[in-house]
Structure formats: C-alpha cells, structure tokens
C-alpha cells in the first residue's frame, strides 16, 4: 500500500521530484549535468520527500515563490547545509565554469588578437547585460580584475574564494 502524505501537488514536492529525476533518471534531459557528473540527493531524502520538505521549511525564503532552490557548492550534492533559496539572479551567478571555457575561470575568455598576441578578457553579466571589465595579458590578471570588480561593486551571489582573491592580490601587486 502506498504512503499518502498529501504533498504531491505542493511546490516543494515538485522540487524534490525534479531533483530526484535529474540525479537518478538517465533518460532525463538534464541527467548529464547532475547525476551524470556525480551529483546526488542526500540519502535520507531519496525515498522520503517529507524529510526533504521538512528540512526545506527550515531555510530562509522557502515560502517565497520568487526564489529558487540552489546548491551553494555546485560540485556537492543536494544535502543539508548545501541548499538554499535564492533569487534567479543569484542562482545564475552561482554556476560552474562552462565545459568549453579554455581558461578554467568563469567570466574570463581567451582571445587571439589580429597581431597574434593572446589576451584574456574579463567580463560579468549585470542586469542581463554583459559588462566588459578589461583585457589582460594572462588569465590570472583577468580573474583578479573580475574579482576586484565584484568586490568594489558589492555584487552578491558570486562564488568567490577569499583565499583565491588574497593570493591573486599578492601575485599581481
């Protein structure tokens, strides 16, 4: 006999079902970006949507329809202390580096100039517009400029490691 929890039509239940599908169903469109790269759902929640929902209800913003569920560290699972509710803007900033990125850094692109010189362009998306920060001789200098821009403009939601920032400051002085 199936367990009846009355949550089937709730927003949090749908989120749980979607997460479970992306992590475990190889036929799902987004499986390769989640389960296919090792992202999973906390074992206590896999067959227990009630536990997932109860945990979500302890998080700030769980009942705000404008917020989305986000993993704080995109290389970790959907698990306690790694999920939060944030705006779509914040969530879009919390992305991993794209597969085709040749620099290894988000917001940094490698360009070959007409002269044949290689430059690294730092940019950032703000209010659905791409802002170019500048062009630099190496990827690390471009990253430093991008992080500095984020800090100076108090932009929230970017996944910036403080240690990386400190190391880059020392390296680029």
Question: Can you characterise this structure?
Answer:
The protein has 173 residues and is an alpha+beta fold. It folds into two domains: 11-93, no CATH class; 108-171, GCC-box Binding Domain (2-Layer Sandwich), CATH 3.30.730. The chain is 32% helix and 17% strand. It has helices at 11-24, 43-46, 49-56, 88-93, 139-152, 162-171; strands spanning 68-71, 83-86, 108-112, 118-126, 129-136. A three-stranded antiparallel β-sheet has the order 3-4-5, covered by helices on one side. A two-stranded antiparallel sheet has the order 1-2. It starts with 10 loop residues before the first helix and ends with a helix. The model has no long low-confidence stretch (mean pLDDT 84).
Characterize this entry briefly.
With 173 residues, the protein is α+β, with helices and mostly antiparallel strands. 32% of the residues lie in helices and 17% in strands.
Task: Pick out its properties.
173 residues, alpha+beta, GCC-box Binding Domain, 3-stranded antiparallel beta sheet, two-stranded antiparallel ribbon, 17% strand
Classify the oligomer: single chain
The helix/strand order is HHHEEHEEEHH
Number of strands: 5
Q: What portion of residues is helical? A: 25-40%
Gross geometry = elongated
